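note to self — DONT lose this again. spent like an hour looking for the file last time. sequence + predicted structure for the chain T wanted, 288 res
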Amino acid sequence: MPTAIAVTGADLALPPQDERTLPAAVLDGLDRRPLDEAVAAVQTLVDQHGHVIVLYSRATPPAVVQRLHTVRSLLESDRVALFRPELPPLSVAVLARQLRQLASCDLGPGVLASAGRLLTHYIHAGALLASVARLDRVPVGLKSHARSWMPGSQFGVLAHPQPRLVKASPENVLPGPEFATWMLVARGQLQSDWVTGVLAPAWQAQGLRETGLPAESAHWWGTGRVIEFCAYLPDLPVLYQLVASVRQTVCHWCGIDVIGDRCVFCCATPPPPAEITARPARALTAGG
Protein backbone atom coordinates (compact mmCIF):
# COMPACT_ATOMS: atom_id res chain seq x y z
CA MET A 1 0.00 0.00 0.00
CA PRO A 2 1.17 3.58 -0.65
CA THR A 3 2.52 5.61 2.26
CA ALA A 4 -0.28 7.43 4.11
CA ILE A 5 -0.20 11.24 4.08
CA ALA A 6 -2.02 12.54 7.15
CA VAL A 7 -3.15 16.00 8.25
CA THR A 8 -4.51 17.23 11.57
CA GLY A 9 -7.80 18.67 10.30
CA ALA A 10 -10.33 18.11 7.54
CA ASP A 11 -9.78 21.66 6.27
CA LEU A 12 -6.16 20.71 5.45
CA ALA A 13 -7.30 17.80 3.25
CA LEU A 14 -7.69 19.63 -0.06
CA PRO A 15 -9.66 18.16 -2.97
CA PRO A 16 -7.55 16.08 -5.40
CA GLN A 17 -5.36 18.02 -7.84
CA ASP A 18 -5.66 15.21 -10.42
CA GLU A 19 -6.81 11.62 -10.76
CA ARG A 20 -3.53 10.35 -9.25
CA THR A 21 -3.96 12.26 -5.98
CA LEU A 22 -4.52 9.84 -3.10
CA PRO A 23 -6.92 10.65 -0.25
CA ALA A 24 -5.55 12.27 2.88
CA ALA A 25 -5.78 10.55 6.24
CA VAL A 26 -7.42 13.02 8.63
CA LEU A 27 -6.34 12.81 12.29
CA ASP A 28 -8.95 15.24 13.53
CA GLY A 29 -9.42 16.03 17.21
CA LEU A 30 -6.50 13.91 18.43
CA ASP A 31 -6.27 15.95 21.63
CA ARG A 32 -9.98 15.42 22.38
CA ARG A 33 -9.94 11.63 21.97
CA PRO A 34 -8.94 9.21 24.71
CA LEU A 35 -5.26 8.42 24.35
CA ASP A 36 -5.87 4.77 23.52
CA GLU A 37 -8.18 5.76 20.66
CA ALA A 38 -5.60 8.16 19.25
CA VAL A 39 -2.90 5.50 19.42
CA ALA A 40 -5.21 2.95 17.76
CA ALA A 41 -6.05 5.37 14.92
CA VAL A 42 -2.39 5.92 14.05
CA GLN A 43 -1.53 2.24 14.52
CA THR A 44 -4.29 1.34 12.05
CA LEU A 45 -2.75 3.66 9.46
CA VAL A 46 0.67 2.08 10.01
CA ASP A 47 -0.81 -1.42 9.66
CA GLN A 48 -2.64 -0.48 6.47
CA HIS A 49 0.05 1.63 4.77
CA GLY A 50 3.37 0.62 6.29
CA HIS A 51 4.46 4.23 6.90
CA VAL A 52 2.64 7.44 7.84
CA ILE A 53 3.72 11.04 7.23
CA VAL A 54 1.83 13.60 9.34
CA LEU A 55 1.95 17.25 8.25
CA TYR A 56 0.91 20.06 10.58
CA SER A 57 1.51 23.80 10.83
CA ARG A 58 3.19 26.07 13.37
CA ALA A 59 -0.32 27.26 14.31
CA THR A 60 -1.50 23.78 15.31
CA PRO A 61 -2.68 23.89 18.95
CA PRO A 62 0.05 22.78 21.38
CA ALA A 63 -2.24 20.07 22.80
CA VAL A 64 -2.50 18.47 19.35
CA VAL A 65 1.26 18.65 18.80
CA GLN A 66 1.91 17.09 22.22
CA ARG A 67 -0.58 14.31 21.48
CA LEU A 68 1.13 13.56 18.15
CA HIS A 69 4.50 13.16 19.84
CA THR A 70 2.99 11.11 22.65
CA VAL A 71 1.33 8.73 20.20
CA ARG A 72 4.53 8.34 18.21
CA SER A 73 6.50 7.62 21.38
CA LEU A 74 3.99 5.06 22.65
CA LEU A 75 4.02 3.25 19.32
CA GLU A 76 7.83 3.09 19.52
CA SER A 77 7.79 3.16 15.76
CA ASP A 78 10.12 4.69 13.20
CA ARG A 79 7.33 4.31 10.65
CA VAL A 80 5.60 7.54 11.70
CA ALA A 81 7.11 10.85 10.52
CA LEU A 82 5.99 14.18 12.00
CA PHE A 83 6.69 17.06 9.63
CA ARG A 84 6.03 20.72 10.51
CA PRO A 85 7.25 22.95 7.65
CA GLU A 86 7.85 26.69 7.99
CA LEU A 87 4.68 27.46 6.03
CA PRO A 88 1.27 29.01 6.78
CA PRO A 89 -1.67 26.58 7.10
CA LEU A 90 -2.97 26.84 3.52
CA SER A 91 0.48 26.09 2.13
CA VAL A 92 0.83 23.13 4.52
CA ALA A 93 -2.38 21.79 2.98
CA VAL A 94 -0.97 22.34 -0.53
CA LEU A 95 2.29 20.59 0.37
CA ALA A 96 0.33 17.67 1.84
CA ARG A 97 -1.59 17.38 -1.43
CA GLN A 98 1.64 17.37 -3.44
CA LEU A 99 2.86 14.47 -1.29
CA ARG A 100 -0.49 12.76 -1.87
CA GLN A 101 0.19 13.07 -5.60
CA LEU A 102 3.70 11.66 -5.25
CA ALA A 103 2.49 8.83 -3.00
CA SER A 104 1.03 7.20 -6.11
CA CYS A 105 4.54 6.93 -7.64
CA ASP A 106 7.38 4.48 -7.06
CA LEU A 107 8.97 6.47 -4.24
CA GLY A 108 9.98 4.93 -0.93
CA PRO A 109 8.53 6.40 2.28
CA GLY A 110 11.83 8.03 3.28
CA VAL A 111 12.22 9.72 -0.10
CA LEU A 112 8.57 10.81 -0.03
CA ALA A 113 8.96 12.35 3.43
CA SER A 114 12.18 14.08 2.37
CA ALA A 115 10.37 15.40 -0.71
CA GLY A 116 8.28 17.54 1.61
CA ARG A 117 11.38 19.48 2.63
CA LEU A 118 12.48 19.80 -1.00
CA LEU A 119 9.13 20.99 -2.38
CA THR A 120 8.80 23.63 0.32
CA HIS A 121 11.39 25.64 -1.63
CA TYR A 122 9.02 25.84 -4.61
CA ILE A 123 6.06 27.26 -2.69
CA HIS A 124 5.25 30.96 -2.47
CA ALA A 125 3.01 31.57 0.53
CA GLY A 126 1.36 34.77 1.64
CA ALA A 127 -1.80 36.65 2.47
CA LEU A 128 -3.65 39.92 2.15
CA LEU A 129 -4.31 41.34 5.63
CA ALA A 130 -6.45 44.17 6.92
CA SER A 131 -4.03 44.62 9.83
CA VAL A 132 -0.48 43.59 10.71
CA ALA A 133 -0.75 44.73 14.34
CA ARG A 134 -0.65 41.12 15.59
CA LEU A 135 1.49 39.61 12.85
CA ASP A 136 4.59 38.18 14.51
CA ARG A 137 5.79 35.65 11.92
CA VAL A 138 6.96 38.24 9.36
CA PRO A 139 9.05 41.34 10.23
CA VAL A 140 6.79 44.42 10.34
CA GLY A 141 8.10 48.00 10.52
CA LEU A 142 6.70 50.72 12.76
CA LYS A 143 5.21 52.55 9.76
CA SER A 144 3.20 49.49 8.77
CA HIS A 145 2.03 49.04 12.36
CA ALA A 146 0.82 52.66 12.34
CA ARG A 147 -0.97 52.18 9.02
CA SER A 148 -2.82 49.20 10.50
CA TRP A 149 -4.89 51.66 12.51
CA MET A 150 -5.95 53.61 9.40
CA PRO A 151 -9.39 52.57 8.06
CA GLY A 152 -9.25 50.74 4.74
CA SER A 153 -5.56 49.81 4.89
CA GLN A 154 -4.61 46.46 3.41
CA PHE A 155 -1.22 44.77 3.33
CA GLY A 156 0.21 42.16 1.01
CA VAL A 157 2.46 39.82 2.99
CA LEU A 158 4.80 37.15 1.66
CA ALA A 159 5.82 34.67 4.36
CA HIS A 160 7.77 32.24 2.18
CA PRO A 161 10.30 31.92 0.57
CA GLN A 162 11.49 35.40 1.62
CA PRO A 163 9.45 37.59 4.01
CA ARG A 164 8.13 40.72 2.37
CA LEU A 165 5.40 43.26 3.15
CA VAL A 166 3.84 45.91 0.91
CA LYS A 167 0.85 48.23 1.15
CA ALA A 168 -1.60 46.60 -1.24
CA SER A 169 -2.51 48.65 -4.30
CA PRO A 170 -2.78 48.10 -8.07
CA GLU A 171 0.83 49.31 -8.37
CA ASN A 172 2.29 47.37 -5.44
CA VAL A 173 2.76 43.62 -5.77
CA LEU A 174 4.89 41.05 -4.02
CA PRO A 175 7.83 39.30 -5.71
CA GLY A 176 6.57 36.07 -7.24
CA PRO A 177 7.93 32.78 -8.56
CA GLU A 178 10.16 32.66 -11.61
CA PHE A 179 8.51 29.49 -12.85
CA ALA A 180 4.99 28.52 -13.89
CA THR A 181 2.61 27.93 -10.97
CA TRP A 182 -1.03 27.68 -10.06
CA MET A 183 -2.51 29.75 -7.26
CA LEU A 184 -4.85 28.61 -4.49
CA VAL A 185 -6.81 31.29 -2.63
CA ALA A 186 -8.69 31.02 0.69
CA ARG A 187 -10.89 33.92 1.77
CA GLY A 188 -11.48 34.87 5.37
CA GLN A 189 -13.36 37.90 6.70
CA LEU A 190 -11.88 40.33 4.19
CA GLN A 191 -13.37 41.59 0.94
CA SER A 192 -10.87 42.43 -1.80
CA ASP A 193 -9.98 41.53 -5.38
CA TRP A 194 -6.30 42.37 -4.97
CA VAL A 195 -5.12 38.75 -4.79
CA THR A 196 -7.14 37.45 -7.75
CA GLY A 197 -7.23 40.67 -9.79
CA VAL A 198 -3.75 42.13 -9.22
CA LEU A 199 -1.36 39.59 -7.72
CA ALA A 200 -2.36 36.48 -9.68
CA PRO A 201 -1.96 38.21 -13.09
CA ALA A 202 1.35 39.78 -11.97
CA TRP A 203 2.60 36.31 -10.99
CA GLN A 204 1.28 34.93 -14.30
CA ALA A 205 -0.61 32.18 -12.51
CA GLN A 206 -1.45 29.40 -14.96
CA GLY A 207 -4.56 28.45 -13.00
CA LEU A 208 -6.49 29.74 -10.00
CA ARG A 209 -8.68 27.88 -7.55
CA GLU A 210 -10.40 28.86 -4.32
CA THR A 211 -10.98 26.89 -1.14
CA GLY A 212 -12.10 27.45 2.43
CA LEU A 213 -9.77 29.19 4.87
CA PRO A 214 -8.13 26.71 7.29
CA ALA A 215 -9.18 27.18 10.90
CA GLU A 216 -5.55 27.74 11.97
CA SER A 217 -4.97 30.59 9.50
CA ALA A 218 -6.43 33.37 11.67
CA HIS A 219 -4.02 32.43 14.47
CA TRP A 220 -1.05 32.15 12.11
CA TRP A 221 -1.67 35.58 10.49
CA GLY A 222 -2.87 37.33 13.66
CA THR A 223 -6.26 38.26 12.21
CA GLY A 224 -9.36 36.69 10.71
CA ARG A 225 -9.57 39.54 8.19
CA VAL A 226 -7.34 37.73 5.73
CA ILE A 227 -7.20 36.29 2.23
CA GLU A 228 -4.52 33.60 2.19
CA PHE A 229 -2.84 32.48 -1.02
CA CYS A 230 -0.30 29.94 -2.18
CA ALA A 231 1.48 29.56 -5.53
CA TYR A 232 2.59 25.99 -6.20
CA LEU A 233 3.61 23.42 -8.79
CA PRO A 234 0.49 21.45 -9.73
CA ASP A 235 1.73 18.83 -12.20
CA LEU A 236 2.75 15.39 -10.98
CA PRO A 237 5.41 14.81 -13.71
CA VAL A 238 7.19 18.03 -12.67
CA LEU A 239 7.02 17.13 -8.97
CA TYR A 240 8.30 13.63 -9.65
CA GLN A 241 11.18 14.88 -11.80
CA LEU A 242 12.26 17.30 -9.09
CA VAL A 243 12.36 14.55 -6.49
CA ALA A 244 13.86 11.86 -8.73
CA SER A 245 16.69 14.17 -9.83
CA VAL A 246 18.08 14.36 -6.28
CA ARG A 247 20.64 11.74 -5.26
CA GLN A 248 19.31 9.23 -2.76
CA THR A 249 21.29 8.09 0.27
CA VAL A 250 20.64 5.62 3.07
CA CYS A 251 19.92 6.94 6.56
CA HIS A 252 22.79 5.68 8.74
CA TRP A 253 20.44 5.27 11.71
CA CYS A 254 17.23 3.63 10.48
CA GLY A 255 18.44 2.38 7.10
CA ILE A 256 15.70 3.98 5.01
CA ASP A 257 16.38 5.66 1.64
CA VAL A 258 16.22 9.46 1.85
CA ILE A 259 17.11 12.58 -0.10
CA GLY A 260 18.70 15.61 1.53
CA ASP A 261 20.59 15.84 4.81
CA ARG A 262 17.96 14.67 7.32
CA CYS A 263 15.73 11.64 7.74
CA VAL A 264 12.22 12.83 8.50
CA PHE A 265 11.29 9.52 10.13
CA CYS A 266 14.07 9.24 12.72
CA CYS A 267 15.36 12.85 12.46
CA ALA A 268 18.95 11.63 12.11
CA THR A 269 21.49 13.74 10.23
CA PRO A 270 24.56 12.29 8.50
CA PRO A 271 27.47 11.60 10.87
CA PRO A 272 30.64 13.72 10.50
CA PRO A 273 32.86 12.65 7.57
CA ALA A 274 35.59 11.54 10.00
CA GLU A 275 33.17 9.17 11.70
CA ILE A 276 32.09 7.68 8.37
CA THR A 277 35.72 7.11 7.40
CA ALA A 278 36.59 5.48 10.73
CA ARG A 279 33.55 3.23 10.83
CA PRO A 280 34.33 -0.35 9.72
CA ALA A 281 32.37 -1.70 6.80
CA ARG A 282 29.49 -3.95 7.84
CA ALA A 283 29.73 -7.45 6.44
CA LEU A 284 26.87 -8.61 4.27
CA THR A 285 24.85 -11.52 5.57
CA ALA A 286 22.52 -13.93 3.89
CA GLY A 287 19.62 -11.76 5.01
CA GLY A 288 20.97 -8.71 3.14
